[in-house]
Amino acid sequence: MQVRSTLALFAALIVGFSAHAQDFQVGEVHIGRPYARPTVPGQPSAAAYLSLENKGKQADKLVSASSPAAKSVEIHTMSMDGNVMRMREVPGIELKAAGKVTMQPGDGYHLMLIGLQKPLQPGDSFPMTLTFEKAGKKEISITVEAKAGTDAKAGHHKH
Prior knowledge:
Order of helices and strands: HEEEEEEEEEEE
CATH superfamily: PCu(A)C copper chaperone
């Protein structure tokens, strides 16, 4: 009986995890694990993260993103110059043939949501449309995830 209970719990955890770990495909581009961090009331912007893998033999490029959750979505890059964080908007993200780009907090690319319509709460999700130069448009779902071991205030970006 104990084994069956353990297996049922394990199966429920797998189903729950896979519901948050949505992946999408458009053309030859695989879009993995789109997520954003929660925000606090009054916070005007947030960042969304995902991975992009070009499984094709031709290069492609993410050229824009949009979402009804914000007035605008910009493609940004972030880097550290000594102790100074540098963020800037970029015109797109090049995806080399058989190449992969992983967006993550604190380094590299992210999708900046500017003018949030409402605070992002853990467990919420919202649509975002990604536009690629060759693969075309794809609507995905961004899940709001709290950073493990922190409160909702941690892990957010301010611009």
